[in-house]
Amino acid sequence: MKRDPKHPLGYKFSEIASHITGLSIPMFGISWQAPEAERTIVRSVLIFLEDRRALYNPFAIEIEHEVANSVLEIRRELTDAIQRLPEKSAAIPPLQAMRAACREYLDNTHQRYGPHFAFMADLGRLRMIFGYHIARLAVMYGIDIDGELASIIPPEYTQDLNND
User: Fold this and answer.
1) Mean per-residue pLDDT pooled into runs of 10, the chain (164 residues)
2) Which domain holds residue 51?
3) Rounded Cα gap, residues 79 and 145, in angstroms
4) What are the beta bridge partners of residue 24?
5) Are residues 82 and 10 in the same domain?
6) Could you give the dihedral angle defined by the CA atoms of residues 110, 82, 67 and 139, in that order, rounded to the nearest 10 degrees?
7) Half-sphere exposure (CA, 13 Å, Cβ side) for 82?
8) Number of domains in the chain
9) pLDDT at position 34, please?
């Protein structure tokens, strides 16, 4: 740890806090847990998305109401991650964009009365937005994208992901 130049006999709080993993003082009823690292939070979101078939299953086998339920779960997970991240985190804008895409998709499902191709177009748009932002997060935080989720990564990002 570096000493604070303003206080040569002390340490900066941020330096001390970064080394504390947890603190509990039961007799006073005070408990504090150190915040999760940003990369850990982003990685947990990407792992969650790897299991969301709505993002990569063939369009022909998708069932509209099941996709809507999955998108609701994705939106909840994104909101949770945004709440856990530090306010100035670089991960927040991509997560917010994916959450907005979920809201847009869900809004469109309530307005859709036409043919099945409208469902596929909306789902394709959702996947495109997710692919772009998943790639950004993977590159920013050095996280591998596994399984079928990699199929929605835009081609211009696959080289960046393969070079890391």
Assistant:
1) 47 40 47 68 96 93 92 98 95 98 90 70 95 95 91 79 57
2) 38-163
3) 21
4) 31
5) no
6) 130
7) 15
8) 2
9) 46
Can you read off the two tokens belonging to residue 109? 């499902």
Helix, strand, coil in percent for the chain, rounding step 5:
70, 10, 25
Residue 98 and residue 51 in one domain: yes
User: Do 81 and 147 fall within a single domain?
Assistant: yes
Angle of the 64-84 helix axis to the 116-141 helix axis, nearest 10: 30
Q: Give the distance from CA 105 to its chain's centroid.
A: 17
HSE-up (13 A, CA, CB side) for residue 142: 3
What pLDDT score was predicted for residue 3? 43
Q: Radius of gyration over alpha carbons of the chain, in Å? A: 20
Could you tell me the two tokens for 62? 């998708």
d(C-alpha 56, C-alpha 93), whole Å: 23
pTM over 0.70: yes
